[in-house]
Design a protein that fits this description.
Helix content is 41%, strand content 20%. The chain is α/β, with parallel strands linked by helices and 220 residues long. It is found in: Cytoplasm. Keywords: Cytoplasm, DNA-binding, Phosphoprotein, Transcription, Transcription regulation, Two-component regulatory system.
């Protein structure tokens, strides 16, 4: 699971990041609201933990911009204010759940998992590319109707390329998408995943753009 955290309090942010990592959840932490929409447009996340009280624009405005941009990522809002009005405002604005500070880390994780489960249960349109079809809800990829078993990172890489057709991504960008911005991985990890995908779907499924990176290729 990959989660974006938007929280300006350094102590709380560090604590949440540590809790997520202990549960094998990959976090990306931002301290301001500006830039959240752009970050979500360029990288795939399973959920967003969004603080209401941010130093530039508040969480309600971030949420408003996301929903206006048709971004349907599950959102868990954090706030130090326990007023009913704030909860109503957040829920009416499109947040999926609300957690008041201070909170227990176990409750945070439980609510986060519940959000992702509910999101996975929503009807998701299938993505097709040539002979490939991707079912985001089932995490399945088929080639000419036949289910092709994939490892988690292989699936995530192929799904990301399929949902961003025509776009070219550098190795570093793809590492960030799959593992998080501060992950320590082998220098050839993306090349290894690309090799596995080409072996399963054909040599042209992922196209190499020389000196730049990779993009979705052809499948017939």
């Amino acid at each position: 699971m990959r989660v974006m955290l938007v929280e300006d309090d350094p102590l709380l942010g560090e604590g949440v990041v540590e809790v997520l990592r202990r549960e094998n959840i990959t976090p990306e932490w931002l301290g301001e609201g500006e830039g959240v929409c752009e970050a979500l447009a360029h990288s795939a996340f399973d959920a967003l933990i969004l603080d209401v009280g941010l130093p530039d624009i508040d969480g309600f405005e971030v949420l408003k911009r996301l929903r206006e941009a048709q971004c349907q990522i599950p959102v868990l809002m954090l706030t130090a204010r326990d007023g009913v009005e704030d909860r109503i405002r957040g829920l009416d604005g499109g947040c999926d759940d609300y957690l008041v500070k201070p909170f227990d880390s176990g409750e945070l994780l439980a609510r986060l998992r519940a959000l992702v489960r509910r999101s996975a249960g929503r009807a998701s349109p299938q993505v097709t590319h040539g002979l490939l079809s991707l079912d985001p809800a089932a995490h399945e990829v088929r080639l000419a109707g036949e289910l092709v078993p994939l490892g988690r990172r292989e699936h995530d890489l192929l799904a990301y390329l399929m949902t961003h057709p025509g776009q070219v991504f550098s190795r570093n960008q793809l590492v960030e998408v799959l593992y998080g911005w501060d992950a320590e991985v082998e220098s050839n990890v993306i090349e290894v995943h690309v090799h596995h995908l080409r072996r399963k779907f054909g040599s042209r499924v992922v196209a190499t753009v020389r000196h730049v990176g990779y993009r979705m290729g052809e499948t017939g």
